Each structure stands twice: as structure tokens, then as C-alpha cells.
Amino acid sequence: MNKKNLTNNIALFIALLFHVSGLIGILFTSHKDWFIQNTPVNLLVMAALLIITQKEKNLYFYLFMFIVIVVGFVLEFTGVHTSKVFGNYTYGNVLGTQLFGVPLIIGINWFIVMYCAGIATTYYENRMLNRINAKGLSVEKRIQKISFVIDAALLAVLFDWIIEPVAMKLGFWHWQSDKIPYFNYVCWLVVSALLLALFQRLPFKKQNIFAVHLLMIQVLFFLLLRTFL
Fold it and tell me: Per-domain residue ranges for the chain?
């Protein structure tokens, strides 16, 4: 086993350990609140693992991460204080230290979602293109770029749709009248498309199998909580 595979396997083990433990703790133990309150720790560890497993890190990778974190926080600030982005909502205390009513960790969460959606879509579309090319066919570069942005943005929105009801139950944030507006998903689609277009354009390595695995783990984690919580 080479060093890269070992690193990915260790990262996968840690991600599974955190999420399986969290799932059991929230659903089946009396320490539910402790597991929920440590959500920021989970997010920080997952972000660190994504950075560690990113191949050939360069300035553009860190630039993407920085932009997504800043844009994510600014959008959440705008949303909380004006309701003109996402809708009318407020944050609870679960996600830790806040600045102007917005958890500092939320920018990290935006990075995790955008990065994982971008990497997963890259893997999927590359496999599809290989199959198409094997048949002697081809797809225009322009169509490939448009398809990537649409697919990755829809994946990010789907992830948000899975999370929303769980986030409300766990106290991450609260929607007015406890209703998630369709406007939230429209905003997610537009913002995700712009950030993922940046992801596509910046020249850094878009290969990280751990990011694909982490996305799958988180989807299963929130689907199970959405079903049984």
C-alpha cells in the first residue's frame, strides 16, 4: 500500500468513526446533546482531512477554499440580517462561536459541500466521458463545462435538501414558521453554480477519492437522521 492510499484509508476510517459514532450517539444514547454540540469539531476535522488528502495542493486550491469560506459567510450574514438570500432564518447555538449572528464554522461547511460536490461530479463525468470516448464519440468542451456546473450545483442543492429538516431538528438553524422556503433552494442553486464554475476554472488537481467517500458518508448520515430522528 503506497503512502497516498494509506492516507486516504486513514481519512476514511476517521470520517466513518466520527459519523457512525455521531449517528449512534444521537439516535440511541442519552448523550445526544453532547454529540450535537460537537458538530463544529466534526466539521473542522472533515475539512482538515479534505485538505490533507487533496493531491498536489497549490495556491489555486487554497484560493478556492478561501473564496468559498468568505463568500459562504457573507451570504449567510446577508441572509440572516436581510432575508434576501435563502429566506427568513436564524442560527441556533449548536454550531459554535458566532460573529454578527452567524457561526464562524459555516464558511467551512460551505467549503466542504462545494469541494465534495465538485470532486464527486468530476469523477462521475470523467467516467461517463471515458465510456463515450471508448465508443468513438465525443462531447464538445463547452457542453462538458456547462454540464459539470449544472450537475455539481444540483448535487449541492440535493445535499442541502437532505440536510434541512435534520438541521432544524438538531437546532443548527431555524426557519420562520418552521417552513423551508423554495427560495432557499433557488439561492443554493445559483450560488452553487457560481462557486462550482470557479472550482472548474481554477487550475488545481480535481482528484480526491476521500472527498467522494465523505460526501457519500454525509448523505447516508443525514438520510438516516432524517428518517429516524
Answer: 3-228
